[in-house]
Amino acid sequence: MVNRSLISITDYSKEEYLRILDLAAEFEKNPNQNLLTNKLIATLFFEPSTRTRLSFETAVQRLGGRIIGFADASSSSVTKGETLKDTIKMVSNYVDMIIMRHPMEGAARYASEITNIPVVNAGDGANQHPSQTLLDLYSIRKTQGRLDGLNILMIGDLKYGRTVHSLLMAMSDFNPTFYFISPSELQMPSGYKMLLDRQGIRYVEDRDFLPFLPKADIIYMTRVQKERFSDPFEYEKVKNVYVLKNALLDSCKDTVKILHPLPRVNEIDPDVDENPKAYYFTQALNGVYVRQAIIASILGLK
Ligand code: CP
User: Fold this and answer.
1) Does the structure show a pLDDT above 90 at 230?
2) What is the DSSP letter of 299?
3) Domains (ranges, CATH) in the chain?
4) pLDDT digit string (tens) for 134-179?
5) 52 CA distance to ligand 1 centroid (A)?
6) What is the pLDDT of residue 248?
7) Which of 44, 95, 129, 170 could form a disulfide with 100 if both were Cys (CB 3.0 to 4.6 A apart)?
């Protein structure tokens, strides 16, 4: 994977991304290592972010590298009309790697095709978020002791939630059973379900998550992605459709873990936070180690 971009989780083989998880476990034990001396990495965020940008930047700094970039495209020359192509070509002359978030699906792939330095997709519209998937896999393996044969309950916005799309593709390597819980307007897109059909992977679709809580090994909650709705009225109809509360978790397995890519809005009540089944804040911390592993692997430093 040296010098290779990470745009979709399928860009890497199962063996390659499992190696990243193993490396992340090493970084968890020893996060401060001077591997990136003289390396400069750009974080170009054309869309808001807290965790992804800051955990990538933490990862770089803990590895002794340096960062340039922007957290808000309005502070860049995009506002003067500069194209994405010109922006990428320019930044490529300055740095060793680009980490990029963009609202347009396919923008990261396009960027990777016009530069010779590796590009990591930090989220492209409703499409993919592969570094999130790797930290999700890391969190699932760490809490369940395995990735194979798990019951994964995905709840919320399965249409626009890019993290569930990437996670579905990766978990498909591990014989899961998926339970897709969403309002009809926000169902898992048919392309992803066709992918599962082709691989013979079981999935159930429903509107109500309560009957499936006792089966779940992982409950993956998602936020309704307000920014992807063209009609605010449609968002209002579905915004609070699912709220996970502590009192609902008694029927779950003791070993279940609740994941959420965050940010949350209302879909997990704060009364869940102290329950040992809640794992979302540790999941976000795992993102630092996994992103250290991604960067070190791509730059050939481990
Ligand atoms: N999980 C995630 O992508 O969070 P941010 O939008 O805060 O980066």
Assistant:
1) no
2) T
3) 9-128+287-298 (3.40.50.1370), 130-284 (3.40.50.1370)
4) 999 999 999 999 999 999 999 999 999 999 999 999 999 999 999 9
5) 5
6) 97
7) 44
| Residue 262 Cβ < 6 Å to ligand 1 | yes
Which residues, including other chains, have CB under 8 Å from residue 263's CB and lie 6 or more apart? 50, 51, 223
Q: Is the peptide bond before 263 cis (omega within 30 degrees of 0)?
A: yes
Tell me which of 57, 127, 262 to substitute to probe ligand 1's pocket, judged by most ligand atoms within 8 Å of the beta carbon: 262
* DSSP calls for 10-77: GGS-HHHHHHHHHHHHHHHH-------TT-EEEEEESS--SHHHHHHHHHHHHTT-EEEEES-GGGSG
The CA 51 to ligand 1 mean position distance, Å, reads 5
pTM of the model: 0.96
Helix (H, G, I), strand (E, B) or coil at 294: helix
Confidence check: pLDDT of 302 > 90: no
Q: Residue 220 pLDDT > 90, yes or no?
A: yes
- Asked whether the beta carbons of 224 and 265 are under 8 A apart, the reply is yes
- Confirm if 156 and 224 have CB atoms less than 8 A apart: yes
Active site residues: 51-52, 80, 101, 129
Dist CA 115 CA 95 (whole Å): 11
**C-beta 52 within 6 A of ligand 1:** yes
**Residue 264 Cα to ligand 1 middle (Å):** 10
CA of 200 to the centre of ligand 1 (A): 31
Q: Does ligand 1 lie within 6 Å of residue 51's CB atom?
A: yes
User: What pLDDT is stored for residue 2 in this prediction?
Assistant: 92
